[in-house]
Amino acid sequence: MKRVLAFTLAALVGLPLQSALAQTQDAAKGKSMLETVKARGALSCGVSQGLPGFSAPDDKGNWSGIDVDVCRAIAAVIFNDPTKVKFVPLSAKDRFIALQSGEIDVLSRNTTWTLSRDASLGANFTGVTYYDGQGFLVKKSLKVNSALELNSASVCVQTGTTTEQNLADYFKSNKMKYEVIAFASADETVKAYESGRCDVFTSDVSQLYAERLKLANPADHVVLPEVISKEPLGPMVRQGDDQWFDLVKWTLFAMLDAEEFGITQKNVDEMVKTADKPELKRVLGTDGNFGEQLGVTKDWVVRIVKAVGNYGESFDRNVGAGSKLGIARGLNKLWNKGGIQYAPPIR
Amino acid sequence: MAVEPRNPPPQLLFKLRRALGGRAGWGGLILQILFVMALAWIAYEIVGNARTNLENQRIASGFGFMSGTAGFGVSQSLIPYSESDTYTRVFVVGLLNTLLVSLVGIFFATIIGFLVGLGRLSPNWMVSRLSGGYVELVRNLPLLFQILFWYLAVLAALPSPRQSVSIFGSVFLNNRGLVVPRPIPHEGLWPFLIAVAIAVAGSLVLGRYARHALFRSGRVVVVWPYVVGSLIGLPLIAELVFGIPLSFEMPVLRGFNFAGGSRIIPELVALVLALSTYTAAFIAEVVRGGVLSVHKGQMEAGASLGLSRGATLRLIVVPQAMRVILPPLTNQYLNLTKNSSLAVAIGYPDLFSVFAGTTLSQTGQAIEVIAITMGVYLLISLVTSAIMSFYGWRINRSMGA
Fold first, then answer.
1. Neighbours of A347 (CB within 10 A)
2. What is the ipTM of this complex?
3. Which segments of B68-142 does DSSP mark as H helices, in order?
């Protein structure tokens, strides 16, 4: 809320309040985002307030997750140091305002790519980190096997997300009644679900798996098979600096391309020395100047992979088989492995 | 030598000058006009600035979004609402929910506040200590904490819909709320209501007449048989002539929840509980201060007339204390209304939650939504103040002060 007010005030008066709009003014002076970030010495990255697998701090305050890895990768490209990131935890409601006001350089916070967000917020999505969909979490004791059996159910959601509209659409098109109780934060939503106020907790499926871990007895709850919406989650940047937009976009593409070429955190050094295939050499920066075209160094992909690994490694470590969440790759497999993750070629 | 009559000063012009320019005269008036113009210019600049800033950042602006389809559900609505309604409708739904919780909260806060405030002054040791303890406990804990406490306490105490507490098989209490039969109006409703109104008005007139007769000539006129007769008889006749006024739709457990009937959601109950008990603690202190401001001789005078303590308070002390109580009491009412925006923490769909929350994040039009929301809270507060001022003016007038 503080951000909403600060932003409103700043836009009204046209003065930078805190850091609000400061970046926009830098842009007006002809200073690019990349230069601004370099001069500041750290990337400012908007993340969630704690969603295991995507962005969550551990007990020492170190952030991890697949969304966090995107920011670390960008920092690695710019500074050759994945730790030069300042993470700004944001609520669902505050996230766009933090981006618009210039408080953060990148929003990497499990945010669904929709037309209205792309068009009306003065920001652009740069790609899809995770193909998700909205699902339902219910208590096993209700003996519900399908979302179509949820007529007249009470549903808990977190406000400020695409979830509320999807929910309304799904129940309407299936001619079912429901009651929605919308909470400001994910924690309160889960608490209300746990206390029995709602029969159902609905959110993106990945989030349901993550929140289920926080429940007293995770095994008593089950995620229903229906996925009722398309939720492509991805990073966002402000409009108006295409170089910055390209850099963030290609950082994610590079992680995907690295996986496609089998470049991993372990073998990347070895590969740089031995690579002989022309397309591999282009990716690793031993041939051509592709990194420089983006405004960074030739070895940008190597830096990314050293910092966070390729896309597959990051997925596995944070949300996949190697994590507590254990979510299957599904749609997020590479295009040549049966999924839809596909990155344009580096050439 | 004849004394020339002095021309009286031009009264009208003088008064006008005084009213518009104050002590500074016409110069003051010009200064005021300049000041207002400067304010208008600043406002104009702010709007223009905001528009340019938003355009530069390619952020959508304007109020066109208000007619867009909201597309999300709301758990409590006093007017018919569905997902296909507009954001304007959502705004009205949220506003009504805010007003509902504020009015109900103010009602209970006033009652509890007066009881506790007078209780604190009670000569009874137990009552005064309990009241004092209540005030100190409740007003010193954060409100958000109390709202969450009541919400989780209310929810934890209630069973699931299938294990509902049932009263005569028609009223059900569970963790989805209190389900009661819903009244459905029929053609007989209006004649019935009119009959009731006539009966009540007639009874009041009869009562006045009886009192008048008693005070004037000492005659005791027995009116109660007529009063009871008309109160029961008139509506009964209306019902026989025009048909039944109401029928009730009974709630039935179907699937996860009760279908049919009306429901009071637990969020509303928890919010009203928290807001009214919290504000009551402050009102209690206001009342105590007001009563103590009345000279203790008034209390003694009441006692020497043979009035009981309760009657002395009710008839003599509290009416005088009201003059002192009223302004800070208004503050508490305003606080309660504004505090109701904490509803978002427990999922009660008030204005702040559905409009400055969901609508804001769906449309992304922060400036417009925040401006409307601020304007509405300001308006609610100003109207409340105006009503209380009017009440205060009447009290002052009736006491000849």
1. 10
2. 0.73
3. 87-120, 125-139
CB A45 within 8 A of CB A71: yes
**Nearest-Cα residue of chain A relative to residue B257:** A152
CA distance A268 to chain B (A): 40
Distance CA B58, CA A124 (A): 11
For residue B51, the distance in angstroms to the closest alpha carbon of chain A comes to: 8
Residue type, B350: D
Q: Could you tell me how far CA A346 lies from the centroid of its own chain?
A: 23
- Select the residue of B50, B255, B347 nearest A11 (Cβ to Cβ): B50
Q: How far apart are CA B229 and CA B320, in angstroms?
A: 39
Q: Does A192 touch chain B (CB under 8 A)?
A: yes
pLDDT for A20 equals 45
Task: Output the average pLDDT for chain B.
Answer: 88
Give yes or no for residue A34 having a pLDDT over 50: yes
- Backbone angles phi and psi of A213, in degrees to 5: -60, -25
Q: Taking the alpha carbons of A167, A172, A175, A176 in that order, is the dihedral positive or negative?
A: positive
Distance of CA A73 to the CA centre of its chain: 13
* Residue B182: Cβ-neighbour burial (10 angstroms; 0-12, 13-18, 19+): middle
Q: What is the per-residue burial (b if ≥16 Cβ within 10 Å, else e) of B345-376?
A: bbbbbbbbbbbbbbbbbbbbbbbbbbebbeeb
The model carries a pTM of 0.78
**Contact yes or no for B152 and A195 at CB 8 A:** yes
